[in-house]
Specification:
Blueprint (H helix, E strand, L loop, with lengths): L7 E2 L6 H4 L2 E5 L2 E4 L1 E2 L8 H13 L7 E9 L10 E9 L3 E10 L2 E11 L33 E4 L13 E6 L6 H11 L19 E9 L9 E11 L2 E10 L4 E10 L14
Parallel strand pairs: 1-4
Antiparallel strand pairs: 2-3, 3-6, 5-8, 5-11, 6-7, 7-8, 9-10, 10-12, 11-14, 12-13, 13-14
Helix pairs in contact: 2-3
Length: 278
């Protein structure tokens, strides 16, 4: 976390440790640090990860995030800083709950509830195995344009040929991450990547997909400066909305996180501006 200072303009070399850093203004009030040189849409995974980082700064030492649920309310501008206010809802014997509101220019762009837990022993079970795909060492870096910085991506064979967007992706931070909280925030950052709807045979996505709400369950800690595999699956579409779920596996096949997301889903003839949900 930084001391009070002005914004920092990010570059192509900006890593997640810098991008997700915060300035602490008061005990429960934080502000993002890195901005873009020109106005641009703010990546949803970025503000979600920064909100989780703010919440983590207010919980007792040793408690790690195990779940979060956020709503994307308005389009954010990556060239402007975001103000993050944390509400300390509860601190129990082993769990803490926090709410975070993210604001730009007096307008709420995102809100989130998150829960933290002090690690303890318990049963271990994994219902789903990682899909069989090429290991990242046999793949080239993806050249797909992305709003994300500080992330390396490699795309294995997809569930359906000719997908518009990959629904299975190897991903890792380009820079070392030094704490369990940093890894959890990086996991949150990448969890809003791409979409599970690309795997629907014959489906053509007519416009930009806009996240409405996003849930993430962190089953166990995982190093995000090593490769993890994201696997996304479509669930349903109706009434201009569509939902998908996903799983994130470590490179040894351990299930580390689960994702559920609902998105605005309209055809090319019924597009709306991203993040304009009114």
């Amino acid at each position: 976390m930084t001391s009070q200072a002005g914004p920092v303009v990010g570059t192509a070399d900006t890593g997640l440790p810098e991008l997700l850093s915060l300035e602490r203004i008061d005990a429960d009030l934080f502000r993002t640090v890195v901005v873009t040189a020109e106005p641009a849409g703010l990546f949803g995974g970025q503000v979600a990860a920064q909100a989780l980082r703010a919440a983590a700064h207010t919980v007792p030492e040793g408690r790690l995030p195990h779940s979060l649920h956020g709503y994307f309310l308005s389009r954010g501008d990556a060239s402007e800083r975001v103000l993050l206010t944390v509400s300390r809802d509860r601190d129990g014997g082993s769990y803490s709950n926090r709410r975070v509101i993210a604001v730009q220019n007096g307008k709420v762009i995102f809100n989130m509830a998150a829960s933290f837990h002090h690690p303890e022993d318990g049963p271990v079970y994994q219902a789903h195995a990682a899909p069989e795909v090429e290991p990242p060492e046999l793949l080239a870096d993806s050249e797909r344009r992305s709003p994300m910085h500080g992330v390396q991506m490699r795309v294995p064979t997809q569930p359906q040929p000719g997908q518009q967007w990959p629904s299975r992706v190897w991903v890792r931070s380009r820079h070392p991450l030094d704490t369990d909280i940093a890894h959890a925030c990086a996991l949150t950052y990448v969890s809003d990547m791409f979409t599970g709807h690309s795997a629907v045979p014959g489906l053509v996505i007519g416009g930009p997909l806009t996240s409405i709400d996003h849930a993430l369950w962190l089953y166990r800690t995982v190093a995000l400066d090593d490769w993890v595999l994201m696997d996304l699956q479509p669930e349903a579409a109706f009434g201009g909305r569509a939902s998908y779920t996903g799983r994130i596996f470590s490179r040894d096949g351990t299930l580390c996180a689960g994702i559920a997301q609902e998105t605005l889903f309209r055809s090319a003839t019924a597009r709306v501006a991203p993040r304009d949900l009114a």
